[in-house]
Amino acid sequence: MKLGRVRNIVVVAGAGISTGSGIPDFRTPGTGLYANLAKYDIPYPEAIFNIDYFSDNPHPFFSLAKELYPGHHRPNYVHYFIRMLHQKGLLLRMYTQNIDGLEKLCGIPDDKLVEAHGSFATAACHLCYTPYPAEEAKQAIMKGNVPICTFCAGAVKPNVVFFGEDLPEKYFQHAEDFPKADLLMIMGTSLKIEPFASLVNTVKSTVPRLLLNRDPVGPFERRPLRRADYMELGDLSDSVRKLAEILGWHTEIQDLMNSHENGLRSYTDPSNSSGENSDSSETDSMH
C-alpha cells in the first residue's frame, strides 16, 4: 500500500469493527448479543433474527430493535481508517455484515459500500414486500408497537436481512469485485455466517489476504497459511492503529476523525452555535 503497488482493496468487515464504538458483537461469551437475550424469552438466540420465528412472533425482535437502531453510537478509529483507504483512492469496495450504519456515518460513500445484511434505512412488509416509510416504522417500534402493512396487514420490518431471507441485490456485486482485488482486508468477523464467510476465498490465490482480528477465523484457522496470507491478532483498534502508523496515516486519520465528528455534532445539535456538543457518551446497544 505504501509503495503504490496496491490499487484495489476490498475490505470484509463484521461486528468486531464496531465494538470500539460501544456496540457488542454477536458471539463473544458473556458480552456478545447472543449471550444476553434471555430477557426476550426466545427458544434459541438466533431465533430473534429468524424470519419464520418473526412471522409468528415479531415482538422480541422489535424490543431488541429499539437498541439496534442507528443513532446511539459514533464511528471509531477503525471506520475512519477504512474511509481513509477511500480518500487515498485505494478502496474498491467495503463489504460489511453490520447493520449499525457507522460506515455511512463516518463518510464512506454508498457506491463504495455493500451492506450485505441490509440496514435500517428502509422498511417493507415481511410477507408481501410492499415498501413502508422507514421513519414511520421506526416511530411505531420505538413506541412498542408493531408496524402493519397497509396492503396485506403483515408485520413490517426494517430491511435487515434475517436467517431465511435473500441477501440484497448489491451483495452480488462481489462476483465482479473480488476477482479485481489486489489486497483483501478482513476485519472483526467470525466468518461464521454464509454465504458472506466464503467471500474471502474468491480472490485470486496470489492476492494477499490480511486478517486483523481477535482470533484466527475461516481459512486462517488452517495451517499452513497460504503464502500471501497475513494475520495480526489481538485488539482490532490497536492493530489498525499500528498499521496506520506504518503507513504514516495516523495523524491524518485522527484529524479526519476529529473534524468529521465535530461536524456531525454540529449537525445533530443545531441549537449549539459554537458547533460543540458535550454529548459524547456512548449508550450500550448492539450491531
Please give a structural write-up.
The radius of gyration is 19 Å and the shape is globular. Helix 3 (77-87) packs across helix 8 (250-268). With 287 residues, it is of the alpha/beta class. The protein starts with 8 loop residues before the first strand and ends in a 19-residue tail after the last helix. It has a six-stranded parallel β-sheet with strand order 3-2-1-7-8-9, with helices on both faces. The chain has helices at 51-56, 59-68, 77-87, 102-105, 134-142, 174-180, 236-247, 250-268, and strands at 9-13, 91-96, 113-115, 118-125, 131-132, 156-160, 183-187, 209-213, 229-233. The chain folds into two domains: 1-21 and 74-117 and 168-276, TPP-binding domain (Rossmann fold, 3-Layer(aba) Sandwich); 24-72 and 119-160, 2-Layer Sandwich (SIR2/SIRT2 'Small Domain'). The model is unreliable at 269-287 (pLDDT under 50). 27% of the residues lie in helices and 15% in strands.
Determine the oligomeric state from the structure.
Answer: single chain
Low-confidence stretches: 269-287
- Which fold name fills CATH's third level, the topology of the largest domain? Rossmann fold
Report the end-to-end length measured between terminal Cα atoms. 30 Å
Per CATH, which architecture of the largest domain?
3-Layer(aba) Sandwich
Using the alpha-carbon principal axes, give the shape.
globular
Helix content: 25-40%
The number of domains: 2
How many beta strands in the DSSP annotation?
9
Strand content: 15-25%
Count of DSSP helices?
8
Secondary structural class: alpha/beta
Task: Give the ordered list of helices and strands.
Answer: EHHHEHEEEHEHEEEHH
| The CATH class of the largest domain | Alpha Beta
Tell me the name of the CATH homologous superfamily of the largest domain: TPP-binding domain
Largest sheet: 6 strands, parallel
Give me the side-by-side strand order of the main sheet: 3-2-1-7-8-9
Rg on CA atoms, Å:
19 Å
Mean pLDDT, to the nearest integer, reads 87
Family: Belongs to the sirtuin family. Class I subfamily.
InterPro entries: DHS-like_NAD/FAD-binding_dom, NAD-dep_sirtuin_deacylases, Sirtuin, Sirtuin_cat_small_dom_sf, Sirtuin_class_I, Ssirtuin_cat_dom
Region (Disordered): 261-287
GO cellular component, one term: nucleus
